[in-house]
Amino acid sequence: MRLAFVAGLQLLPARQRAVLLLRDVLAFPAAEVATMLDISVAAVKSALQRARATIAEAAPAPDRITEPADPRTRELLEAYMAAWEHADPAAFARVLRADAVLSMVPSGVRADGNTACLALAATAMDGGWRMEAAGANGQPAALAWWHGEPYGVAVLTVAADGIAAVTVFADAALVDRFARPAATGGPGPGRP
User: Fold this and answer.
1) How many CB atoms lie within 10 A of CB 161?
2) pLDDT of 80-116, one tens digit each?
3) Buried b (16+ CB within 10 A) or exposed e, 29-59
């Protein structure tokens, strides 16, 4: 699944999320979903229509996303990581698009627009961050350690004109899952 789909699921109410997963991911017929959720078939169809519309609205346009191997993508990822490692909100502002979105998972905290993203990020930019480039679901990502402890993974949605979205998965266990093993087979270079 694309990260946009996963992030979009967080925007859906529980019933719409259940219907979308049961119908579009697991391919259950509408009648079976209605029975499972104890709602009418019409309610299933309506919930699915609303869920698809929400997901479509949340997904970035294909022409606004660059591939992880793209030099511009790598440049923006490096600048993003440097801004956090050096506690430099101005550098962070330079890599974000004006309409950028910063989302925190699982807390659900979200900031829309460059100014709101900066306000949210500035409180956490304390110089205690260390990051390592990674990839997640075909998108550039940064593994993050805060004061030497694993923190989580920031997944970037990058466009040619800057970072359109940052989704921070604040789960320390993800750092170990994404860390690259060193050539010797030992711990990855980003491990404390």
Assistant:
1) 12
2) 999 999 999 999 999 999 999 999 988 889 999 999 9
3) ebeebbeebebeeebbeebbebbbebbeebb
Angle (CA) 75-81-83 rounded to 5° is 100
135's tokens: 């990839």
pLDDT one-digit tens code per residue, 134-143:
988 778 999 9
pTM exceeding 0.70? no
In three-state secondary structure terms, 171 is coil
Q: State the DSSP code for 74.
A: H
Q: Pairing state of beta strands 129-136 and 139-146?
A: antiparallel
Distant-in-sequence, close-in-space partners of 111: CB < 8 Å, separation ≥ 6: 101, 102, 103, 117, 119, 120, 121
